[in-house]
Amino acid sequence: MPGQVAYQIMWNRLISIVEEQAQALVRTAFSTSVREAGDLSAGVYDAAGQMLAQAVTGTPGHVNAMADAVPHFIRDIGFDTMRPGDVYLTNDPWKGTGHLHDITVCTPAFHKDRLIGFFACTAHVTDIGGRGFGADADAVYEEGLHLPIMRFASAGTVDPTLIQIIRANVRAPDQLVGDLYALATCNDIGRGRLTEMLDEYGLDDLDGISDFILDHSRRATLDRIAALPQGQAAAHMRIDGYTRPVDLHVSVTFAGDRVLCDWTGTSGPDPKGINVPMVYTKAYACYALKCAIAPDIPNNAASLAPFEVTAPPGTIVNALHPAPVALRHVIGHLLPDTIFGALDQLMPGVVPAEGAGCLCNFQMSLRPRTGTGGAGDAEVLVFNSGGTGARPSLDGMSATAFPSGVMTMPVEATEQVGPVIIWRKELRPDSGGVGQYRGGLGQVMEVGPRAGYDMHLSAMFDRVEHPARGRRGGAAGGATTVALSDGTPLRGKGRQHIPEGTRAVMGFPGGGGYGDVGARDADAVRCDLALGYITPEMARRDYGLSDHDVQAVLAATALGGEGANS
Amino acid sequence: MQGGQARLGVDIGGTFTDVVLETGADRFSTKVLTTYAAPEHAIVEGMQRVCADAGISPARISQIIHGTTLATNALIERRGAKTALITTEGFRDVIEMRSESRFEQYDLNLTLPAPLLPRNRRYVVRERIDADGGVLVPLDGDAVAALADELRDAGYDSVAVGLLHSYVNDTHERMIRDVLAERMPAAMVSLSSEVSPQMREYERFNTTVANAYIKPLIKSYLGRLADSLRVAGADCPVFLMHSGGGIIDLATAAEFPVRLVESGPAGGAVFAADIAARHGLDRVLSFDMGGTTAKICLIRDQTPKTARVFEVARTYRFKKGSGMPISIPVIDMVEIGAGGGSLAHVDALRQIRVGPESAGSEPGPACYGRGGQRPAVTDADLILGKLDPAGFAGGRIPLDPAQSAQALSDALGAPLDMSVQDAAHGLAEVVDENMANAARVHAVENGEDLAGYTMIAFGGAAPLHAARLCEKLGIDRCLVPSGAGVGSAIGFLRAPFSFEATRSVFMRLSAFDADAVKGLFADLTAQATTFVRSCDADAPITADYKVYMRYSGQGWEIPVTLPAQDAEHPDPDRFLALFEAAYAALFSRTVAGMEVEITVWAVNATTPKAAVDPATPVTVASPVAARNQRDLFDAAQGISQIAGVHARADLASGTTVIGPAVITEDETSIIVPASRDAVVLSDGCIALQRKE
Questions:
Q1: Closest residue in chain B to residue A11, using alpha carbons only
Q2: Among A62, A191, A440, B283, which is disulfide-ready with A388 (CB 3.0 to 4.6 Å)?
């Protein structure tokens, strides 16, 4: 039997293997959100379907989804029918990762003729048919092709009927089928590495290493939970929603060896596609809890098990089939802030104030003004972020995604994709919530069509009516603003016309402040003013800086002074 | 080298300045402590030492080739000049907003690295160029003049200019330079369209700002260096190693100092490539392990792999994304926090973790007896029998195994209920596994399988760990060259003159414009050749052509090497075929029916590589007996064994040493585990080969 050192090395190796799997996907997938946002996952499982290691990628949205997925495959396909060379797939929003655009591929791993484990990976694909990616559907049936858990390949032979059906139902069949093969290939890379490892250590199966990983992870997680003050706390956050405001209610309980997180009281489903299947709610809830309680313990079956997330069926966070779910991230991204409201009562001094939460994404549809029958049309999707909430001992992060790990695209690259001009993309002064620690700044963007083009903007913004609230005396961050350059207001969600010669002017939200403003370090206020994070007006009004101080800071700043570096 | 010609290679590292003198076939080397305040002092001292050893006067030196970490360190330590950025209105915060992402997902108290220039040193001008190079908003000359006066009055030493889409139209950037030259002539100016003419504003602006930030410092250093050398009697041309693995002249280096970043490690890769050429090896993994970090590089066909962008000054456990991007032609290396000084601890999962925190040289590992309390990799190596306590650094630094045992026991053994030896084994295995994993991921990212590779190991700690890495990676053969401790400086002497010119021009294959392509390559070739010609007036110069291509809709471009024929007579079908071949090599498939596009064009002008002295086959003698023996822990088997101890200096060419064995030299020891034998090759390299 291998010793402690060998097991530790194998654990490291498994983590490295799933990172390799994920890297290979990032580089080959066509989907913008895979490569820019890291909207993908990869994991390795034992024969019982228990997840042993998962790649850390740009999305927390797959955290539990991946852990739950393989048991579904084992149940639906049948363990005893599985053969070497098999590959299975699904995009079932309730068994996969929350919407039809995520395809999960699962491959059994055999060693010495026995099924000893599984590899699975998930990626967001560009198109899955239906209405296209958006919130417009009334039911999941309109959102695209639904692939139940089924065989993609049997004993090495890909199912030609399945491929035909897929090709006939999507807008970019080459890309999608290419992505399916890429997913299968990534699992194969993992399988090969696993075999090498088992050979190197002379093992027949994963049983020993599985016990080692899960025991250590369980023990470490339980130690953390045991050290928490036992108790229960509730929190509420209201957000804009799509057609009407949504109330998110959560109750968090530290109960000995478990952390319970329940969403009773939360609003019912929305008629449009922002509803969240339970699996996705579990993912973002677990993510928030793990950040606060056990950030350094890797995700696996044992480290996730003590976090129990529940919600009454039929709430917007436990939407049932056939609710439309394509944009489940809009609500999902705001769940952590709600949970932090409860955690702050149970474990003061750990969690941040509320932040922008939801990504500030929008899509631009361009059409030449002289009708060309579709030639020259372009769709341009961009990801942007507001500010994060201030922390108990740090300012919030400006224009930084949280909880998502999305990256923005370069402006120069976006302007290559379609006839748009991004006139401004810059930090938004005064948008950080006031407090002892300032919320992160949001950003300002101005966009318009190039000459000769007509533009529509599909907005997906929240926090227009409900800005990020401060914590422990901190003030709210700046709310989302959307308007035309001539001052005409625009809506936070939905498709809207941007006439030629005008621009859409958007202010993305800042994070909430933390603590009482009176306790803010005076040098930090002067530095914020010197850097233009706050205006002189805000410095005087909200931070109580004297006119004399304001003038002194501005004079030093004009000379490129050091105030900025203090 | 040519008979009688003396050439000097100098590598300024964080701790030591390595100096190597070659006179014909003879090589003299020395290490001098780096003199931070005036790095040229260590160079002069080192030069005098090796000249004395060689019995020549510095006047005999015909060429000095120099690489330095000064540029990198200035960026890490933020010791640059007072620098301003002038950028397009609406884009003041590009270098601060970065990619808007977090490089660590679970840390609520994450701190993002501060931009090189704070917001109040970033200025905007009204102007705008579109993606095709058209002027949407013209530049207002009066406003620029007013801004120039403001910058002059504020006392800026250096100015970076980065405007949107300047890689396709640099008119506005050049206009700004003209105004600055007139109104603040003392300031140094860096244009993004010259420093890094590539699409993607964050990378380009940051690279330009970095260049501007270190320019006054590097320029003044290079001036002082030339003077000091002249005073010391070496009145010869001085050249600089650049990050792409070639050398450039002083003037070019002073203009584009950002190209000096990572020049030391680049020299190491060139050193390994030269060994590869000597031994006719086409697939090589170079492994350079020092006190703080390990660097791994793939070398195909005796040429190190290159990339267009890399990251310096990582602030968070060497994590990807925690530093700043520099987009210049660079040798593609992975660097991880694993070196002899890397420290170990036990984490919340009761697992041993090693690095990236390092004990450095002060206090150093516990066994140095200078107050280090925590176990480092060197402590584990000592306990496992890899190092001789009395023979470290030629006996100058006595090592104390008792201190190592205490530190290992306190930090790892006690919490994990392990013996000192198990703790040492665990520590060494973890650090070796970390390096092996980094090598595997790097290979996957490059579409390579390491199975058929040969490792070339150098740097102080590499020979202690190389064989175990080979076991983990399935690599059958590893060469440990002589002179491994000063590998980078030797590499400088093997590097050709070279300069790579790149430009972003977006072109779909469906809209391929052969004449435009020809013109573009002609421009880039002329630009790159001019730089090389300024270094060497006579040598033949060849151009290597490369484009970066992808399927439309992808975010990653892959490099596609073009034969000269295809650059001179561009044909879209050939471009497609070359792209598909490269894509399939990387990802084992191509995608039918997708549009393909080119984003970046590159021409590398270079003089021929240094002539290679091929290694000759050796007649393998029967194994030699060891004079001494000691216990050596074998990681693969998990047991201690008796190992023969040999001095490298005593081993003649052709000698075989049967593992397990230790081959000692002044700076380090070569570990031959039970799975390997060692053979001394004709050029002094020691080959560690898997037993039949």
A1: B351
A2: A440
Is the pLDDT at B356 greater than 90? The verdict is no
- Residue B446's CATH number: 3.30.420.40
Please give the Cα distance from A519 to B437 (Å, whole number): 47
- Residue B395 CB contacts under 8 Å (≥ 6 apart), including other chains: none
Mean pLDDT of B325-334: 92
Strand partners, A114: A111
User: Are residues B18 and B65 both part of a single domain?
Assistant: yes
pLDDT in tens, A338-352: 999 999 999 999 999
Q: Please state the φ and ψ torsions of residue A492, each to the nearest 5 degrees.
A: -75, -20
Instruction: Give residue limits of the domains in chain A.
Output: 4-218, 352-515, 521-566
Q: pLDDT class for B77, splitting at 50, 70, 90?
A: confident
If asked whether residues B320 and B276 sit together in one domain, one would say yes
Which residue among B177, B198, B213 closes a domain?
Answer: B213
Report how far residue B263's alpha carbon sits from residue B271's, in angstroms, rounded to the nearest whole number: 12
Beta bridge partners of B664: B647, B669
Name the nearest CA neighbour of B271 among B297, B307, B239.
Answer: B297
Strand runs (DSSP E) across A185-330, as ranges? 231-239, 246-255, 258-262, 307-310
Whether B174 and B186 map to the same domain: the answer is yes
Q: Is A68 a residue whose pLDDT tops 90? A: no
**pLDDT tier for residue B547 given thresholds of 50, 70 and 90:** very high
Assign 3-class secondary structure to B275-296. Answer: HHHHCCCCEEEEEEECCCCEEE
CB contact, 8 Å: A291 with chain B?
yes
Task: Give me the residues of B, 435-464, that contact A with CB < 8 A.
Answer: 437, 440-441, 444-445
Tell me if B583 sits within 8 A of B597, measured CB to CB.
Answer: no
Write the CA distances from A374 to A377, B355, B507, B551, integer angstroms. Answer: 5, 57, 22, 22
Both tokens of B278, joined, read: 């000597």
Q: Are residue B351 and residue B363 in the same domain, yes or no?
A: yes
pTM: 0.93
Within-domain flag for B357:
yes
Q: Average pLDDT, whole number, for chain A? A: 92
ipTM: 0.94
Tokens found for residue B489:
């400086």
Q: Which of B71, B69, B62 is nearest to B493 (CA)?
A: B62
Domain ranges, residue B512? 498-606
Sheet with B542-551: strands ordered across:
B498-508, B596-606, B542-551, B558-562
Cβ–Cβ gap A216/B350 under 8 Å: yes
The answer on B282 and B251 residing in a single domain is no
Non-local (6+) Cβ contacts of A169 within 8 A are A128, A129, A144, A145
> pLDDT-based confidence at B3, cuts 50/70/90?
very low
- Which residue from A298, A410, A443 is facing B201, i.e. has the nearest CB? A410
Identify the residue among A125, A412, A554 best suited for mutation to test binding to B, counting B beta carbons within 10 A and taking the highest.
Answer: A412
| Contact assignment for A423 to B90 by CB distance below 8 Å | yes
Does residue B615 lie within any of the structural domains? no
Tokens of B85: 């950025």
Query: What are the chain A neighbours of B441 within 8 Å (beta carbons)?
Result: 16, 19-20, 23
Count Cβ–Cβ pairs < 8 Å, chain A vs chain B: 226
Q: What is the pLDDT of residues A92-107, one digit of tens each?
A: 999 999 999 999 999 9
SS3 call for B224: helix
**CATH number of the domain residue B504 falls in:** 3.30.1490
Domain count, chain B: 6
Strand partners, A54: A43
Question: CB distance B430–A12 less than 8 Å?
Answer: yes
Q: In the Cβ-directed half-sphere of A141, how many Cα atoms lie within 13 Å?
A: 3
CB proximity B200 to A under 8 Å: yes
Kindly compute the dihedral angle of the four CA atoms of residues A176, A178, A184, A186, in this order, to the nearest 10 degrees. Answer: -110
